[in-house]
Amino acid sequence: MRPLLACTALAGLAALAPEAASARPDGPGPAPVRSAIFYYAWYGTPARDGSYRHWQQNGARPPGRIASAFFPSRGVYSSADGLVVAAQMREIAAAGVDQVVVSWWGRGSAEDARFSAVARAARAAGLSVAAHVEPYGGRDPASVEADVGYLRGYGITDVYVFGAADREGSEWAEMNDRIGPPLRVFAQTGRVGVAIAGSFDGVYTYDIVTWHGAKFRRICRQARAAGLLCAPSVGPGFDARRAAAVDQTKPRHSGATYDRMWWAALAARPDLVTITSYNEWHEGTQIEPARRQPGYASYEGAWGRRGADAERAYLDRTVYWVARLEQRGR
After folding, report:
1. 138: burial class by Cβ within 10 Å (0-12, 13-18, 19+)?
2. pTM
């Protein structure tokens, strides 16, 4: 789990950035990707990786007790297991999603070591691949510019920068003006002025608690006016209490939360919709299948589904919403 709420606070401080004219006056072209989902390749098990990774956060003791409010249908797994990753990519593709945005924590990280295999599995399933550049230690615009050059080697053309408000806009602008098309760089923020100051190609919100659906119209209206792509993030709910000292939650309400966010996203006329998330189990934003397990929440009752049928409820509902998105067009 990343410091989500801390990064959101930084974004709020950076909201004072002036909403000046975009540094790319012609603006980016139409988005070839209409839907994208955030994916995490950071999980590990003793059998595959020598120890548990991420499942054991905050004093959890896997496999029986994990750092999540929910329990995955496929059990505690390793993101280094090629069969698991291939199955996950097929699930995402079957949901109609166009692109998988893979969490990346810098060169030499465990996520970097797995990036190539995840990208291959995604493309084999017919998915586009993007990189989610996280706030790794020592990250700054200069290091991200070097990262972009490195990630191009994997055929990446979309880069999402989490916590873009952590540096001055002028620093990001220098980087983005040198990168240029066809690669697109999105800033994670609900403050469009931050993205304008940084000469980003677009904005995405990721944080479904702070940047809820009621704010999507304003965000996308401002983005369009500035010639930026708008990619609001929808999600089913939020519950990180077992993974970190975060008391704030966003209940799922048997699927109603997910529906409301999708309705709001479509009403905002986005260029693409991003989904938080496929498998961020720590924050309880996942739509990956979850099973009933004593001591854990489940998808029971979502859209009236029960038992084993409920395990895939959020993936199946994503099929419906992605189809609605495609029907509406830009």
Report:
1. exposed
2. 0.90
